[in-house]
Design brief:
Chorismate Mutase Domain, subunit A; D-Maltodextrin-Binding Protein, domain 2; 5-stranded mixed β-sheet; aromatic amino acid biosynthesis; 4 domains; prephenate dehydratase activity; 6-stranded mixed β-sheet; Chorismate_II_sf; 391 residues
Length: 391
């Protein structure tokens, strides 16, 4: 049998020590000969105490901020995505190593999540079930100090947010290799939900099974999109295995756990949830495989300083229609990130353009462009202005 690439390895990777802020360094890094192990551990303990004290101090200040806002109706009223984005950008700007930006952002996200939960944990609806990439996107954006609500469909996520049963929702909108998730775009044709954030998540697919042995596998379960993302790997290493498409990778995991000769393709986090071992991974054909998710809410938020605006523009099918949509943004110096057309829902031969533009709807150039666009469009709907994904 050919040697398998990137096979699962036993054991857990150790956590890298965190870099404390300047005021939390009780002892300067040593220069010269290496220090004795006992001395190093002593200094790490000292740094850990300083970090813990500073986190507690931050939590107290965060609690005071909540009190300063007065008595608000719900946890969602304390959450300010533009403020969090500004904090995380400063974390990235200050970072001089040795930890990567993504690691530091994740640490600070968890600190902010825990501090916010002092008021009340946010309720976050997402396209479930548990163990999906969408759940990973939820934790990347909100941290783990929340109440995660797995829901059965993208439509249900929109409905729970609109009804107020979920403070926010997270749904996939596009993948770098497979394109747009049309069911998400279609919901915006009728939904009143607003976009108040975005998450970009590197998608790593893993082969999971009950036995953990590739030689046992005779059939593989996965969502059709996951099969498409791992086509070359499966062709090389499991050419004879039956490929069975299911509604979600989580459903595939549920089926795979019932037999030693079955496997599923899913994210690594699904393994512990469904009692499966990692056989191999990542197994996706393209290492840059990324999915973009949208964070849904019920209101628009102020500018963060680096924002994106999503629009839904309805126009009649006529000569020069696309030019009329594009021209106002070019005239006002706004960069268009994405445009996609869909049949509208208000009449025959009417089309809806989904457009992403750099900038915030409160900024003068964007306001003027939207005003100019309204002269040509039958309807212009601001779906949301929100901070650009940081890492």
């Amino acid at each position: 049998m050919a040697k398998l690439p990137r096979l699962a390895k036993g054991g857990k990777a150790g956590k890298a020590p965190t870099q404390p802020p300047e005021r939390a360094r009780p002892v300067a890094p040593a220069k010269g000969p290496p220090l004795d192990l006992a001395v190093l551990r002593d200094r790490i303990d000292s740094v850990d105490r300083a970090i813990q004290d500073l986190i507690a101090e931050r939590a107290r200040y965060a609690g005071q901020v909540g009190k300063a806002k007065g008595k608000l109706a719900a946890a969602v009223d304390y959450y300010r995505p533009e403020r969090e984005a500004q904090v995380l950008r400063r974390v990235v700007d200050r970072n001089e190593g040795p930890l990567q930006d993504e690691v530091l952002v994740r640490l600070f996200r968890e600190i902010m999540s825990a501090c916010l939960a002092q008021q009340e944990p946010l309720k976050i609806g997402f396209l479930g079930p548990e163990g999906t990439h969408t759940q990973q996107a939820v934790y990347k954006h909100f941290g783990h100090s929340i109440h995660a609500m797995p829901l059965g469909s993208i439509e249900e996520v929109f409905q729970e947010v609109e009804a107020g049963n979920a403070d926010f929702g997270v749904v996939p909108v596009e993948n770098s290799t497979q394109g747009t998730i049309q069911s998400t775009l279609d919901m915006f044709l009728t939904s009143k939900a607003k976009i108040c954030g975005e998450v970009e998540l590197r998608i790593h697919q893993h082969l999971l099974s009950r036995s953990g042995r590739i030689e046992d596998i005779e059939r593989v379960y996965a969502h059709p999109q996951s099969f498409a993302q791992c086509k070359a790997w499966l062709r090389q290493y499991l050419p004879k295995a039956e490929k069975i498409a299911v509604g979600s990778n989580a459903e595939g995991c549920k089926r795979a756990r019932s037999a030693d000769d079955a496997a599923a393709i899913a994210g690594a986090s699904a393994g512990p949830v469904y009692g499966l071992q990692r056989v191999a991974g990542p197994i996706e054909d393209r290492p840059d495989n990324t999915t973009r998710f949208l964070v849904l809410g019920r209101e628009l938020f102020p500018p963060s300083g680096n924002d994106r605006t999503s629009l839904l523009v309805f126009i009649n099918d006529q000569p020069g229609a696309l030019h009329h949509v594009l021209e106002p943004f070019a005239r006002h110096g706004l960069s268009m990130n994405r445009i996609e057309s869909r049949p509208g829902n208000t009449g025959l031969w009417q089309y809806a353009f989904f457009i992403d533009v750099s900038g915030h709807s409160d900024e003068p150039a964007m306001r003027q462009a939207l005003q100019d666009l309204s002269a040509y469009a039958t309807q212009v709907k601001v779906l949301g202005s929100y901070p650009v994904a940081i890492v």
